[in-house]
Amino acid sequence: MEQRPFGRTGLVVAAIGQGTWRMEGDDRARAVRALRAGLDAGMTHVDTAEMYGSGEVEEVVREALGGRRDEAFLVTKVWPEHATREGVVKACERSLSRLGTDRLDCYLLHWPSRHPLEETIAGFEDLVRAGKIRSWGLSNFDRARLEKALAIAGEGRIACNQVLYHVGERAIEHAVLPWCAEHGVSVVAYSPFGSGVFPSPRSAGGKALEIVAAAHGATPHQAALAFLLRHPGVFVIPKASDPAHAAENAGAAELDLEPEEIERLEAAFPLRPRRDLPMM
Question: Are 78 and 108 within 8 A, CB to CB?
Fold first, then answer.
């Protein structure tokens, strides 16, 4: 599995990781097997959140990482309602308990909060000093909010910005992606298959994905992930419903798209006029 620098943290992380959104609705045993299969395939970046299933999914992750915590780059997210300085610390401690670990590799603000961002960042830095998190980042932040966070925290402190990004939703390429590249902030793409809206094989985009995938002996889903990973600062965290799906996701790391294939996909999924950053 390809490893990439994660922001300016000095850490290197698997380019393809594992998301867990809505995993509380899955068969638990199968979800655990899928996460373990992902670890076996090198997808050691595991992302969750205290909001997912009201903490239930963090417990699923704990079971999946049983005896393998040190293999994982473990990320969870604080619910914005908890994002005061003191609230961030308490929420992190609850997540650590549910995850069965003494530290996180990265801790994110799930989306912009009504609480002052200065307080949230102060809470993150408290956790870094206490050794409970190795790094922190943001999620669903547009360029203006990223600028504000940078002004508070300074260069090199924001590890990543986790955002919606898939072949049919490329809005981050207007402003967020270039800003993150300029400031050494990694971009983590959630819902990289579109969360139930993957292009139909009968559509122009679906046909383009099939053509590109066939040239590599791959699947359209693998081609879609490889397209996002054409940017060196991007990571993807697809969710897998079973071990076979996890193995398929990991296989996307083997695809090295040619310039003409990237051009084909860019034409099939055109970048729409600039608009607000979407959020799932």
Answer: yes
Nearest by Cα to 199 from 272, 269, 280, 273? 269
b/e burial code for range 174-190 (CB count within 10 A of at least 16 → b): bebbebbeebebbbbbb
Residue 48, SS3 per DSSP: coil
Alpha carbons within 13 A on the beta-carbon side of 50 = 25
For the stretch 98-156, pLDDT in tens is: 999 999 999 999 999 999 999 999 999 999 999 999 999 999 999 999 999 999 999 99
List helix spans (H) across 130-230: 143-153, 176-183, 204-215, 220-228
**pLDDT band at residue 247, thresholds of 50, 70 and 90?**
very high
Lookup: tokens for 119: 């307080």
Q: What is the dihedral of CA 107, 113, 117, 119, to 10 degrees?
A: -80
**Distance between CA atoms of residues 179 and 142, nearest Å:** 10
Question: Could you tell me if 38 and 70 are in contact, meaning their C-beta atoms sit under 8 angstroms apart?
Answer: no
Average pLDDT, the chain: 95
Whole-model pTM: value is 0.94
Q: How confident is the model at residue 276 (pLDDT cuts 50, 70, 90)?
A: low
Residues near 249 by beta carbon (within 8 Å), at least 6 away in sequence: 16, 18, 38, 41, 43, 221, 222, 225, 238, 240
Which of 235, 203, 232 has its CA nearest to residue 220? 203
Tell the burial category of 220 from Cβ atoms under 10 Å away from its Cβ (0-12, 13-18, 19+).
buried
Give CA–CA dist 184/199, Å, rounded: 32
Give the three-class secondary structure for 12.
Answer: strand
Hey, what are 265's tokens?
């996909």
Q: How far apart are CA 216 and CA 264, in angstroms?
A: 15
